[in-house]
Amino acid sequence: MKKILFFKVLGLAALFTACSSEEGEMKILSNDSDVTNELNLQTLNYEHIASMLTDVPHSGKSIILNDGNTKTWEIKVSRDEKTTISGLDDAILYSGRSKDSTFLTLASDYATLRLTHNGQSINYVAYKDKDKMEEVARFYTKEFASTRALSNVNNVTYIYNESTRAANKDIACVVLNMGEIIEAYRSEYEDSSSDCIMPKISKKMNESSHIVTRTPAEPKSVYVVCLIEQGAQLLPNEVSWQMQDAAEALYDISDDYIKLDFKLLQSDFVATGDNADDKLESFRAKLLSIEELAPYDDQMFYLLHYGMWESGILGKAWLDTYRATNARGEFWASGLSAVTAIYPGVLAHEMGHNLGATHVADAEDLMRETAHTIRGYKHLDEYNRYTILRNITWEE
């Protein structure tokens, strides 16, 4: 008998059929006013971020960021109304204007702020529950100790809750200096030049020589099912960062044709094999073996894992296997993705492969081969952008 218990327990079918417009526990107020508010980055906590984001109107909201000293700057935050996340997470995604280089997430139990300012990339992570906040803070301290930094700047610092007693202050937020962390920790990783596989089958294409494309009244909702590998311990905020990077990269090309509906689930899957290629094959084979998933074989499926899948390999995906129309099916639009703070954009990179994007040399491009430094968040290569647009366009 096939092992499908985890899908039944979590109600996967219900997740697929649930209306993607449901708001969950957090209600977004309809307020079209453009209100200016302020976040002090030295006293940041979950409540502060939540209070700024729970009333962001459709037109966006201006927020003043204050570093706690003398510097302030303004960002304009908008909610990502196309992307939904459900299952084990309920995060809502927000971002600033392109020039702001700012990304935020708000879930019922955590909130984050990722920003690049004055040449520094800083991530703020705040959990609502003080015990969970303590656990997350200690995890990051253990993973990214300041003694390995390339300068005297701390990799990880804490913001304490000023309302608690001075002798035993609760941690309210952890601050990650991502630029320093990445420089200190990435030297052990190799490039990703072999992280995609061309399927050994012919492409399922429209046979007509007269293809007419159209812009739908509403973008087509595409399920992106993210399964956590059995035994993997992943932080929810790091998973939602990967999802946000993927959505931002796709919508930068076009948000007219498809929108991403992420489903985050715990699984009993364990990818088997001697290398990442074998593990990708085994993941697809497991998906094919579950009859209940057959109706969704043309959607995107990814297996999530902490760290590398093998030496130097952070992800692996089939190349050019997703099309909005004339879908290939049979779970070819699938891949493996590492989830870790020091590698933003891994899921976005592998999804790019599924959508037809190949590697490029441009250091600022999401599809750059090597990941020794921070990749860009966007597809810059014109041919890759054309290929992705072709694959997400509706045809008649």
List the helices and strands and how they pair.
Layout lengths: L4 H6 L1 H6 L18 E5 L5 H8 L7 E6 L5 E8 L4 E4 L4 E4 L6 E5 L3 E8 L2 E8 L2 H14 L12 E5 L10 E7 H8 L10 E2 L15 E2 L5 E9 L7 H18 L4 E9 L9 H13 L11 E6 L9 E4 L15 E5 L7 H9 L27 H11 L1 E2 L1
Parallel strand pairs: 1-2, 4-14, 11-16, 13-14, 13-15, 15-17
Antiparallel strand pairs: 2-3, 3-5, 5-6, 6-7, 7-8, 8-10, 9-10, 12-18, 16-17
Summarize the structure.
The protein is built from nine helices and 18 strands.
Structure characterization notes:
23% of the residues lie in helices and 25% in strands. By secondary structure, it is of the alpha/beta class. It folds into 2 domains: 158 residues, Beta Barrel (Lipocalin); 207 residues, Collagenase (Catalytic Domain) (3-Layer(aba) Sandwich), CATH 3.40.390.10. The protein contains 9 helices and 18 strands. Helix 6 packs across helix 8. The N terminus is likely disordered.
Question: Top keywords for this entry?
Answer:
single chain, 396 residues, alpha/beta, Lipocalin, Collagenase (Catalytic Domain), 2 domains, 18 strands, 25% strand, disordered N terminus
* Domain module count: 2
* CATH level 1 name of the largest domain: Alpha Beta
Count up the helices.
9
The tally of beta strands, per DSSP, is 18
